[in-house]
Amino acid sequence: MTHLFYFLTVALYGCATAAYLACLLRTSPFMTRWAGRLLVAGFTAHLLSTIHLASKLKYLPLTNMPESLSFFSLAIVGGFIFFERRYKVTTLGSFVVPVALMMLTASSSLYAETRQLPPILQSNWFWFHALLAFASYACFAIGAGVAVMYLIQNYFLKTKNFGALFQRLPSLDTMDEISYRCLAVGFPLLTVAIIAGSIWSEQAIGSYWVWDHKQTWSLIIWLIYAALLHGRLTIGWRGKRAALLSILGFIVVLFTFFAMKHSITW
């Protein structure tokens, strides 16, 4: 049953990706509606697949790279659906949904045997930490997608290229607001995730902070987004500078996620 839901999810995300890219090329109410419907259907199938797998494993599927990639994809799509409904930014799907599709597709190419949950992961603090971390990463992924759109639109304005794509992208103010909302939600989630991870580390190995690679890079991510939030609130950072830092932050998130996966903390 899990495999059935998985392949259905991939198919629906693929169709949704094609629909969102079509909206970027030529906007129509019909295509916009179907892009959203396909994505919601895919998200539902993805959620059911995750729930079914969790019921088989008896724990949340977050303990290896394939499971983590799939859950990361689920979190990104869920976050995007919220922001799309809130801000009516269909074109954002052209920059976010393909990323979720690639993550989900990559998860199937990485084989991991089902195994008994190690004692170190049998802690409520671990699950709390992991769920909050993925929620914050999803916010940062959406923020990075918005930042890419912002840079494209800003380039069009500077070069006075007011073509079809310029007309379909949201205004700079709208994108700046979405970017700030992603940061305002993602940063507190990341902060609590790191605190929860430290408590879990203390329970598991007797130390809140061991300065391993994962904890160090998690702190670097926190500092990048703390600087971005501080700059926006106190110095008034907006526009290109904030967009570039948002993209940099997400690049570091991806590096930490893929390169440091086998560390004790996420």
Model description:
The chain is mainly alpha-helical. It has two domains: 1-117, Up-down Bundle (Four Helix Bundle (Hemerythrin (Met), subunit A)); 119-266, no CATH class. The protein is built from nine helices and no strands. The protein has helices at residues 2-25, 29-57, 65-87, 93-109, 124-159, 164-168, 172-205, 213-235, 239-259. It is flat.
Spell out the blueprint of helices and strands.
Layout: H1 2-25, H2 29-57, H3 65-87, H4 93-109, H5 124-159, H6 164-168, H7 172-205, H8 213-235, H9 239-259
Helix pairs in contact: 1-2, 1-4, 2-3, 3-4, 3-5, 5-7, 5-9, 7-8, 8-9
Approximately how much helix is present in the residues?
over 70%
Order of helices and strands: HHHHHHHHH
- The number of domains: 2
Largest sheet: none
Span of the ends, CA to CA: 29 Å
Structural class: mainly alpha
Tell me the number of helical segments per DSSP (H or I, 4 or more residues long).
9
Report the C-alpha radius of gyration, rounded.
19 Å
Question: Can you tag this structure with a few keywords?
Answer:
mainly alpha, Four Helix Bundle (Hemerythrin (Met), subunit A), 9 helices
In summary, what is this structure?
The chain has helices at 2-25, 29-57, 65-87, 93-109, 124-159, 164-168, 172-205, 213-235, 239-259. The protein has nine helices and no strands.
